[in-house]
Structures are given as C-alpha cells and as structure tokens.
Amino acid sequence: MSQTQSLSTDTVVATRNARRTYYLGEPVHALDGVSLSLPAGSFTAVMGPSGSGKSTLMNLLGCLDTPDEGEVEIGGQRVTELSDSKRAHLRGTEIGFIFQTFNLMPRLTAAENVTLPMVFNNDVETGRRERAEQLLTRVGLGDRLDHVPSELSGGQRQRVATARALVNEPSLVLADEPTGNLDTDTGAEILRLFEELHAEGRTILMVTHERQVAEHAEQIVHLVDGEIAEVEQLDTDASNKRTVTTDETH
Amino acid sequence: MKLTESIRISWRAITGHKLRSTLTTLGIIVGIAAVITFMVLGGGLEQDVLGDINTEEDTGIQVVTQADTGFGGGQTQSVPIYTQSDVAAVSNVSGVESVTPSASLSAVQLTHGGETITGGSGSVYGVTASTSDRFESELYNLTAGEPFGAQNEAVVNERMVDLRNEVGGENLTLGDELTIQLQDGRQLNLTVTGIVDQNTGGGQPRVFAPLEYYDTSVETPSGDEERAYPALFVRAENVDQVETVKAALNDYLQNESAAAELKTDDQTIAVQTVEDAVDQFTAFLDQLQLFIGGVAGLSLFVGSIGIANIMIVSVTERTREIGIMKAVGAKKREVVQLFLVESLILGIIGAFFGVLLGLGVGYLALTVPGWPMVVPYGWIGIAVVVGVLVGVLAGLYPAWRGARVDPIEALRRE
Question: Which residue in B has a C-alpha nearest to residue A65's C-alpha?
C-alpha cells in the first residue's frame, strides 16, 4: 500500500492508515486502517453504529491516544513522535474539545472554565477575563460570566464548553455527541452555533449517531467496523464547500 | 502553569469542601499544637527556674548526697553525714572562701498573726537552717528585704508567702514575727528579714533560719560525737577557681572525709557547681520534652496520614476533573503540581493554626504554675517545616495517582 499522498497545505488534521487495536482476550481492531484528511474550514460529521470506532478516531484526532500503526498529523506534527507532555501541549493549543457531558470544572465559573486551557498552555495571565467575556458573548452568555456550571442549564453549559473549545484558537474543534444530553430545541441551538462557527471558517469534526444532527455538516464519514465505509457529501450551499479526502488504497 | 495559578485552583478545591478540609487540617493542627504547647511549658519551666542564674559567674558549689534512681541523675537525699570536722577540712581547701552547712529542721507547726499552719493536709513546708552566706549565691534570689543577720531572724520564700495567704488572715510580710514549733520541743520566734523567689527551697514553701538552731549530731568513724549536716554550700574565692575547688572537694570528700564513711553504699556524694546543677536540670527537662514531644509527634504522623487519605479520596473523586484538565492541555507535571500544592496548603494551614493554638494553650497553661512565657521560636520553625513536609509527603502518592489518570477513561465517566 502506497502512502505517497502529500497533505495539501490547508489540511489541519490527517490520519494515514491509522490502526488501533485493543486486546480483550483476542485483538479487537477498533480502528482498522483509517486515512482521513480534514481541510481547514471543513465541517465533518462522523457517524457509525456503536463499536464502529467513532470514539477511537476521536481520541486519535484529539491527541488523547496514539495509533498502534499508521500516522496522525496535527498542524503538521506527527503525534506518534511526540512526548507525553508535548502531546498535552498540542492538545491544549491545536484542539478544542466539546463533550456530550459538557465536562466543565464544577467549581470554576463560566469565565474561568473558558480560560482553563490558557492556564495550562499560556503563561500570560492578563487579558483572560476579556477573552472569556468576548467568547461567552459570542455564544450568547455575556451575562453569565460568573455563574458556576450548576447554575446554568444544559444548553448554556454546552455553550460554555464551546467557548472553551475556541479559547486558544485551535486548528480543529472536536465535538463528541454535542447534542446527546440536550433536548431537541436546545440541541438545535447548539448546532446553529456550530454552523455559525463553520461560517467563520473554523474546522469542525463532530461525532454523532443521529442522522439529523450529522446533516448540519458538509459531509458525513460513515464508519463501520473500524473502517471508513463511505464519505457522503451533503447538499448544502456549495459556495465555500471543502471536502475531506480519504485514502482507500489498501 | 504558574505557581500562583495552581494555588488559586487548589484553594478553590479546598474551600469547595470546607468541612472536609477543616477536619483534615485538624489532625495537623492538633499534632503541632501539642508539640508547641509542651515546648512552651518546658521553656516556661526552664526560664522560671534558671531565668536569672548566671552560671558563668557563680562561685557557689553545693555538696549533697544522692541516691541513684537511674533516671536523669540522682535524687537528692537528706542524710546528716557531713560532720563539723569535714566542714573545717573543706574550709581549709585552697581557694575556698566560705563553707555554709545546710540542714532541715523538723517543724511541727508554724504560727503567724494568730493563725497556725500545720505541716499536714497538703500544706507541706520546710524549715532550713543555714548561714546567711548562701544568699550570696546566684541560686538564691532575694526579691525583698535582706538575708537574716542575727539569731531570731529568718528569710522565707514566695511559696511560703502564698501558703500563708491561702490560710487567710494577715499577709506574711517583712518584719512579721513567725513562731515555729519544732519536733524536739523547742520554739523559735523569728522575725522575717527577707523574701527569696519561689524557686528557692526545692519547690516547697520554706523558711530559712540561722544555723544555730540545728543541733543534729552523729557518731563519727573516729568515735566522737559531732554535729553533722546533710548538705554544704561552698563558695570559691573567684570564678576561675571553681573547677579546681570542685576537684579538690571531690578528692577530699570521696576519699578522706567522715562523710565518705558515713554514707551508705547506694549513696553518692555529689559535688556540683551551679553550672552542674543547671546542666542536670536542663538534661532532665530535655529528656522530658523529648518524650512528650515524641508523643505529640506521633499525633502529627497520624495527622499526615489523614491528609494523605483525604487527598487519595480527592483524586479518585476528581478523576473526571483531571481528565478535563488533561484534555485541555494539562501535563502530568501540572496535575502533580496541583495536588501537591493542595496538600501543601493543607499542611501549611495546619502548621499555622497549630502554632497559634499551641502558643495560646501554652500561654493559658503557664498561668496555672505562674511560669513566664518563652516563645519557642526554634520549635515554631520546626513545626512549619514539618507541616510543609507532611503536606508534600502526604500529597506525593495521591498526586502521582492523579497524574496517571487516563483522560479517555476519566472523560467517559458519568
């Protein structure tokens, strides 16, 4: 199998023939050779049944995990070659996570949660409040800066988490079932927010198992048994459309 | 991550669980407070007893008889073995300026201002016969009046004044008349000329009367009947001669004196300079402090286990938070830092309040015996260092566990 394909300059994240195997008595290929390139500014959904490797792909792209075989490149850096703390740094600067369960720090205020990634990746302490205010205003929570998560609704919490994901201007926003814990209306609001972020030119990858959620993206990558089964292009207004490239040479 | 940031975040975690944090630090507070309290008490006792004694300049040497107790030196016994000939011989030793025999008189009752104080029911007091030379020693600290000069005069210590006050009626002051009934039937009428501080007199209420009232005699080895005393106070001519005189006294008393023959086998003749006496007392106090300090240190150890325990619980409880922090870029080192700072803060808070509490309790406790307050700066320093160390040590393992948390697993938790 040839892996000669060079990444285009505006590719932010790519996997090349990535394989991740868990040993549960016998080897289970959670990800069985996946090649995927996400161009800057793309909005991609990943769908697939339970156990298809969605989470594993997410962990690899989010730099939380490394492949057993193959490559993951984030912002031009090969993740497998990095030390533990370099990977942590990459995670903090290049990736913005949004989780199904929000994952906010319970004792920190909305503003402090938003700037948490700056605590670990940025020694400059000044201007954080302004940054938090700017981002929270952007997601419609300009009046909730000093509320702790328990004082916020589910939708508001996911907005705080979204603002946090953006704080370090990451190359890629990774959302794992971002609407999974929200009712339909609130979920729709979050998805509208994602579309706005996409329109601003941010690169988003969203994992979901709901078709109607995935349809907010430009394209859907269907995973089955740890492999990419299909990349489905969606008919959105095609003016600034960017498509993922996959490599199915094996 | 800057230290100020981790302090801010850790402080939030600590104040987020106020009751738990309070109970955790309580272990350290009690441990350190116990150590400080005992050190304050020990220091107060030492200052009280030794405060004004200038060991370097005192020319006094005391000769007493001790029975070996095996704990911190001997216990002083009152046996009349130093005969009049011994006294004469000692005063001829080169460098000796004066020799003052000292002895107890067996008093039955003491009358002052119409009130009678008997020796029973807790109000034990003593009457010592000696010459007034002894009041020149640094060990005897006259706080009022002057030494007795003639027959019919006496010096009392402050404890005696206190004892008199407890009985009620008139206060015992300079110029007052005391009537002391001795066991052998004699009655002494004494006028108080001076008051010495409360440490003089072996911790008991005591009256010091002229030596003329003492008349105990023993049969000497040579067969004569001679007056004999249970203790001698020798004064050297000058400070430089104290050690030489001490050696000469030792040589004579241990080998040639009548006392050496009169003492029993388990008794030892002890020749002590003021410095020796102070050293002996300090050594005893140090042993006591070490022992009590050790017990208090144990409670500090228990306190540190408390911190470690709660930190482990805290790490487990916050696994998800650790996952979040790691997902947004926290390195292992930074997770370790956060938890170490947290347990460090607990340790420092414990040390701080422990020191305050210890000083406070110590101060209150000192008012009971009336000892002076001596702030044990050294021990405060040690307490703070121990608090910090306890914090770090108790936090190491939990922090390491925290750093090992797998963010993927942690974030999957509900």
Answer: B408
Q: How far is CA A128 from CA A37, A115, B94, in A?
A: 33, 6, 86
Contact A21, A27 (CB under 8 A): yes
> What are the boundaries of each domain within chain B?
3-50+287-411, 80-262
Q: Calculate the CA dihedral of residues A106, A111, A112, A113 and round it to 10 degrees.
A: 50
Rounded Cα–Cα distance for residues B281 and B55 (Å): 13
Q: For chain B, list residues whose CB is within 8 angstroms of any CB belonging to chain A.
A: 1-2, 4-5, 9, 12-13, 16, 320-321, 323-334, 407-408, 411, 414
Contact between chains at A105 and B321 (C-beta distance less than 8 A):
yes
H/E segment holding residue A15 = strand A11-24
Give CA–CA dist B364/B373, Å, rounded.
10
Per-residue pLDDT, averaged over B158-169, amounts to 81
- What was the pLDDT predicted at B74? 64
Lowest-confidence segment of A211-220, A240-249, B263-272 by average pLDDT: A240-249
DSSP character at residue B330: -
Supply φ then ψ for residue B307, to 5 degrees.
Answer: -65, -45
| Per-residue tokens: B387 | 């608090």
- Please name the residue that has the structure tokens 């110590």: B362
| Residue A57, pLDDT score | 92
CA distance A171 to A95: 6
Cβ neighbours of B331 in A, within 8 Å: 84-85, 88-89, 120
Q: How far is residue B325's CA from residue B269's CA, in Å, rounded to a whole number?
A: 75
Interface ipTM: 0.88
Residue A45 DSSP SS3: strand
Chain A CB contacts of B330 below 8 Å: 88, 92, 120
- Mutation site for B-interface testing, chosen from A57, A74, A120, A157 by largest number of B Cβ within 10 Å: A120
H-helix or E-strand containing A78? Answer: strand A77-78
Question: By three-state DSSP, how is residue B181 classified?
Answer: strand
